[in-house]
Amino acid sequence: MTKEELWQAVLAQIQLNISQANFATWFKDTGIVSYKEGAIMISVPNSFAKEWLENKYGKNIFKILYNLDKEIKGVKYLVGKTELRSFKRMPFILPTTGQLEFEEFEINKETNLNPRYTFENFVVGPFNELAHAAAWATSKKPGLVYNPLFIYGGVGLGKTHLLQAIGNAVLKNFSNKKVKYIPAEKFTAGVVSSIKNHDMENFKKNLRSIDVLILDDAQFLAGKEKTQEEFFHTFNSLYENNKQIIISSDRPPKAIPALAERLRSRFEGGMIGDIGYPDYETRIAILKTKSQERGMNFPEDILDYIASNIQRNIRELEGALNRLVAYQKINNQTPSLETTKSLLKSLFVSPNKVANPKKIIQVVADFYDLKEREILSSSRKKEVVKPRQMAMFLLREILKSSYPFIGRKFGGKDHTTAIHACNKIVKELENNENLSNEMELIKQRIFTA
Ligand code: ADP
Ligand code: MG
Hints:
The protein has about 450 residues and is of the alpha/beta class. It contains 20 helices and ten strands.
């Protein structure tokens, strides 16, 4: 089992035992970063999650890991976003060989391209046909047909895949061309550090020797004036020399806020292609392609279930599939539709944006592992008082409830009790970072669960 599969297996088990909301809160963006000599290192997005996982779920996590692999002796938690989008590192199983073989794709240090993203494994449907055709043509004649090529579309819909596919194809077609893929955030960081290190000349020189420059997620340039200026000059210099520029963004150029006019008009000066939402048939085709890549073959009803429930994000389609693949490997059997539903339930939290008193109280109680009636009681226990005050505060803040109403809701208390509770929380939120983190998470749940 790879690290990713091991972690997917752990997640699958945990998910069966805790509430959807808890799962989404505490296990989002977690992953195994290393596994050496029996020690597992799990990365978590922030220190708050670290504390919570260590103290509340640590024992269980260890138990599950140990049951999966008896060599495991200890678990440590590490704060840090270590690029843990597990799907990106997911091992790739070559479908041609009878045996399962693993091949980890390595990102090329020169070009920053990941060879995993190709035209061959990019599924084309009505929603991305135009963007794909433009990308394909660009890869055949870089600098000559569409310059710049600007691709936009929502999260997880294939922009990065398509951009990198162009880069990889150019490398294959023209071995002497210099290709560079740069996420806009990295570009910004590059500008900042070369200013700091008085190294701007070098930075510019490097950029201007590129034949195909790919800038991903250009929306991150918003408001970064110095970076925009640098990019503008780089753009012009490359453009004048017939070098290809390819840009992606989550929205069209005119919708990127705080983007200098001259840069906007450059972005609009070539070909703009958008990627929409995949239709049902394409979603099924993507699931089939990705299953085959892994040497798997899931029955139609399972694919239909996934494709019907995930409609607007291809990355999530893959995530769902990854869970089933992990299940299949561990249990050596295809999950039934019922199992599939429970394995995937945390992925399908349906957005229901209405908050009401009952929901707020429920969410707060669930967050602190209390019963609803405890929150509503008159108990003076510290573990109950704070959550109760928070719930009162949220009724006031979100629903604009009156103090007498809040008092009545909480077991017929006086309106002064409600005022006191709200004031207390307002003060504490200012000074207590943990509390404000908790409040944030609770609000997220109220609005998503
Ligand atoms: P974006 O950059 O738009 O957020 P990505 O390019 O990272 O999205 O795509 C998310 C995931 O979905 C990637 O793993 C990618 O390989 C896969 N994907 C997206 N579009 C397609 C497609 N048309 N065919 C196959 N896989 C796709
Ligand atoms: Mg992307």
